Every structure is written in C-alpha cells, then in structure tokens.
Amino acid sequence: MTSRLARLWQPGNPQRRTFLPDFWMAVVESPSVGRNKLPPNCVKFEVDPRMSRHDIREYLTKIYDLPVRDVRTEVQMGDIIWNSKLDYQYRKAMWKDEDKKFAYVFMSKGFTFSFPKMFEALEEDIELVKAMKQQEELKDKLNERFANRNRRVGNFLGS
Amino acid sequence: MHGLKRILSRRTVARGKATTVAAQSLQPSTEAVESQSLQPEKTANASSTYRPPYYRKVHKHHEPKHMLQEEFINAGDASGAGVRLFDYYKTAEIVNSMPTIAEKIDAVSPYERPWTRAEKTWRRDWHPSLMATRKAWGIPATPAHFDTLDYYKYLTKTRVENASLDEYYHGLRPPIADLQNKFQNTLNSTNFGNGDSSNDESTQKLLGFLLDEAMGGIAHNVARLSDHRVAYDVESEAFWIRSGFMFLYDEQEIGTRDIKRRLHNFPKFIGDDRRKLGELAFVHRDKLASQVRSREPITPMHPLDSEDALLPVFDDSVNLEDLLYSPKVYNLWPDESPLWQCPGYHADSGETHLYGVLGVKSLRSLRKRVAYWMGRDNEQDLESSDECKQMLDDGARSQAIISMFTTLCAQAHNHGFTQFNDVTRPFTSQMILSDGINFYFAVGQLNTLAINVQCDGFVNPRTNYIRIDGPHRLFDSYQDGKYSTVQEVSVNAEKKTQKKVSEGLNEKVLERVTQMLMKQ
C-alpha cells in the first residue's frame, strides 16, 4: 500500500495501519460535445488501478471534502502490439501497455466543475490564424463577383 | 415508326398536362391564398411523401465537390427528411396491413438477435462486415442515478404536473373505517413496525394486502369490481424508440473549436438505427407489486385534440443541451434480451381484461440507492436531510413517469397502435408508488407514441401527461403497536387549518387508494 516497507508482523504487535496510502488520482479532461460529454457535476479521473469505488469516494470526501454522490469506474485495457496484425488466429502478443482505470465521480446536484484552461495563450493564436484564413477566403469571394460565369474558361487562360 | 409516333404523342400529352398544372399554379386564386395563411405548419403525410430513388440517403454523402453541388442541391439531398419520411410511412403501411397484434409488435420491434458463433466464425473478408446488432438501453426498475427526472421526461415526452388529485377524485367518498382497522392489523401481523427494517419483497406483499383490503371494503357497493382482474408480482414491459440523439455523433476537431457531425467511418452508437439517425431504442422491464385490470378503459383526463394535450414538456428556460447526454451518464445499460410489449399480459395470451386501471409499485429499493449515494450505512432517517428528501422525491417521480409510460405504451401496442401508427384515442391509467411509508399517487395519460422520428416535415406537438400527488405519509409515529398521524383539519370556512394528532393511519392515503379503485 505504501512505498515504505512495513516491519514483519509478530504476534502481539498492534494491527498494521496505513494512514496515507500511495494512491493517486488525476483529473482528466472530457469533451464538451458528443457521446463522451459529461454533465457539469461529473468529474473524470484517472486513478490508481488498485483503487476501488469505495477508496475513490473516501479519498475525495476525507481529503478534499467534496460532496461525492456516486462513483463509477471503468478499466480501459492497454493496447497490445501483435507480431502479425491480420492473422487473428495464430498471432502472438509482443507487448501490452498497462491497463488504466478511470473514475466518473458524480458530485451533488448544484456542483459545477470545469477543466482548468492551461493553454489559453495558445488558443488565442489559433483564433488569429482562423481570422487570417477567413480574410483570405474573403478575398476570393470579392473576386468571384467580377468573374463571368457564363463563359468560364480554364484558369490557365484567364490569368 | 409506329412506336416513335406513340412516344411522341405520349410526350405531348405529358407536356400538355404539365403546362396546365403550371398555369394553375401561376394564378393562385384569392381563396387559395386565404386558406394557405390559415393552414398551420406544413406537415408531411403518407399521401404527400413519394418514393425517393434508391440512391438517396438520409445523410449527406460527402462535402460538395464543386459549385453546382453547392448552389443547386437536390431537394431530396438537402436534408434526409424525404427518405426518412418515406421510410416511416411505408413502415406504417406495412404495420397496418398486418393481421394480428403480435405480428404488429414484432414488426416494429427494434430487437436484432446477436450474431451466432457460426456467423462470426465463417465470415470472410469478402463478406460484408458484421455490424453490431441493435440493443435497447435498459432503464432499471429503480432509477440508478440521482438526477433522472428531466431525462425521463424527455425519453417519454411526458409533461409532469405536481399537483393534488383531489379535483380528479371529486365526488368519490368511500367508507374507510373498515380498511383502517384491517390494514393496521395487517401491519402488526407482518411485524412492519415503523417500517425501517422492511425490504423490497415484504413491501410488495404489503402493498398487495392494502389493495386486497381496500377492494374488500367497497366490493359490496361497487358491482363493477367483481369483473376486474387483480394480478400480483406483475411484469410490465415496453420498448420504444426516442429520437433527438444526433448530438452523439458530434465531435470537436483537435486544435480547433469546430464541431463536426461525424457519420462516416465512425462507430454507430449503441441502440441506434444502422443509418445513424439518432433514434435510440429503450426498454423498461418493470415489476409491479400488483395490478388491477378491467375490460373498459377509465375516462381520459382530456381529449387528444384539446390544448392540454399540446402543452410542451419543458419550459422555455430549459435548455435541452444541458439535459441530453449519453444514456450511460444516467446509468442505463444495453439490454440484449428480446423485447416485449407486455402490460401485465402478452399480446397472444387471449387476455380479455386489456386495460390496466391501477398499478402498484414498490419503491423500497430506491431508499437503498439513496442511502448509498449519500454514503449512509443504513436506510433509516433518510428524511432528516433535505438532499436525501429531494433525491427520494425525484427518484419517485422519475419512476412514476417511466412506469406509467411503460404500462400505457404496452397497452396501446396491445390495442394495435405503434410508434408508426400513432394512437387515435388517449389511454389513461392510475398508479400508486410507495416504499411502505411514503405514498405517491399518479394519474397518467398517453397522448402520443410517435416520438421516434425527428426531421423536417414531421410535426407532432402532442405530449403525454402525468399528474403526481405526494408524498403522503402512511403514519407519522409508531409506538407499542399503535400508529398515529398528524392531520390537518380545517377550522373554519376561511380555509384555516390546524394540526391535530389522531390515532390510526393517514385517512387520506387509505381514502385515495379506495378512490382509485372506484374511479371509472
């Protein structure tokens, strides 16, 4: 449970207790549209694969004092690299990634969680690129008005 | 030559016809203009929807490749509505032509059996790939999520009114003294106590006893009851398709904020049609503690063409985008088993008592769920916290909506109506939901079943309706085998009330149960 090795238990010793297990949880971003969209009171975590639902609930309520109402977990199998992609019958696994465990934690009704925006500056750049692209398109549109569509000739003749 | 002449003459005839039609359409009469303005929204129907060529698809094949495709979109391709509607009305035609009700139900069932082992083994690369078979999303017998109310309203297109049912049962004053004594004796003989240690099974039995004793108390006066059929531990199952789930195919492109609807090279969502129409199949396999059925239906609350049947499910303030998620969010799971329409009996059973008058459902397992959500060790004292109370209330109301819709939907199917040929008369039923202590009473009406299609030209403003009254406590305190209730008694004509502790169970609950049995 912990990274420390416990002393070997001898009869008469007190029960071994772990006060802070080395469990970990990390918030994962979920898409804002589509089939994987989550309601605002639901937070998705990647958790230590050894953690159970109960552990997750305890972790969030006891340490962070969060209003946890429901916990659902999902284990996602790690990718397997096969020696042959198409031979389903006789292929051998060369490597398998570790399985991952995800937890969907539902908080009380009014709770809202939004994933922190860490790359806002970058997003602004994207907006700029987009605006430039739109301007380019607008240029073409302007020219379109003067084009004679009835007598369309190939580009190489027109220019 | 002769053949050519015939072709020419035919052509001229056709041309002549076309011109006359054009001439007529060019000069619209004043009457026509008036009638057009009076007409409501243009709706499609079987007579106005034509068979589209086979290559038309419900979705756009591809992005426009050149200017012609951009500017002059074929009307059939602009939206997939033409093809979808033709398909809908054709199915309706086929369903109508079926001789028996069991066949009609089979024809509209979205159930697809899973691929067999042989089919999977012997598929080769030159065969078409085995597409995932359609599974319906199973709605659990008790809500498995604490915030299902609005979602269930959407799934069943039901307008919910939380109001008293006194007006509905106005004029029915049954005797309840006998029931009061008998049911108290039953509670004592089953060691019900204050109800804390009760479980789902014992609650179901208790609700069965309550119904029996209420019937026994009024049977000598209400001759109609002798012809009713009472069933216990009833399976009430229905399947239906709900549209409006196209958002499940939306995807945000990485690095941009553009949202695209991905329909090609993207897996079909579970429960959806193979054409990716955003029409998910749902099934609810409900267990009722008991059910009363009759040969005659009870009087509907409002007719189909009234304004009440057209009122919207949600206010304008509700944004559907904040409400609609994948069914997984609400803890629904795909159900692989075959689907039935079974309101307590199967279509081919030859049942004569087709109308469910009253259904009784136990909500005991909801308490267990709420205790788990709130991180409690046991189900006692749940009412002490406001959030628990809210959860219990929302859960009970959600269950009332879904149980009522299931019963009525299955009943309508057993009368030959399906989602393709919508109901022509309303179906009404009553329901009691209880965890043994808190009682909810509901009256619901099925106004429409056609909730499976959502596209241009298909207009169906009708909504289903349910009125839920509750919670009413059966008793407020229990001591030494005696129950007592706090009741509000009107003091004077100005509707002033006073709280008064009286011995025995809540008379309002007992009266309402009896009234529900008497209602015609």
Automatic annotation (TrEMBL), chain A:
GO CC list: mitochondrial large ribosomal subunit
Keywords of the record: Coiled coil, Mitochondrion, Ribonucleoprotein, Ribosomal protein
Similarity remark: Belongs to the universal ribosomal protein uL23 family.
ATP-binding as UniProt keyword: no
Subunit structure: Component of the mitochondrial ribosome large subunit (39S) which comprises a 16S rRNA and about 50 distinct proteins.
PANTHER family (alphabetical): LARGE RIBOSOMAL SUBUNIT PROTEIN UL23M, RIBOSOMAL PROTEIN L23-RELATED
Coiled coil: 119-152
Record protein name field: Large ribosomal subunit protein uL23m
GO biological process, one term: mitochondrial translation
SUPFAM superfamilies, alphabetized: Ribosomal proteins S24e, L23 and L15e
UniProt xrefs under InterPro entries: Nucleotide-bd_a/b_plait_sf, Ribosomal_uL23-like, Ribosomal_uL23/eL15/eS24_sf
Domain of life: Eukaryota
Compartment(s) where it occurs, according to its Swiss-Prot or TrEMBL record: Mitochondrion
A molecular function (GO) term: structural constituent of ribosome
UniProtKB/TrEMBL annotation, chain B:
Subcellular location: Mitochondrion
Cellular component per GO, a single term: mitochondrial large ribosomal subunit
Name of the protein described by the UniProt record: Uncharacterized protein
Molecular function GO labels: structural constituent of ribosome
Region annotation Disordered: where it falls in the sequence: 19-51
Organism classification: Eukaryota, Metazoa, Ecdysozoa, Nematoda, Chromadorea
Keywords: Mitochondrion, Ribonucleoprotein, Ribosomal protein
A Pfam family annotated for this UniProt entry: PDCD9
Organism of this sequence: Caenorhabditis japonica
One of the GO BP terms on file: translation
Top-level taxonomic group: Eukaryota
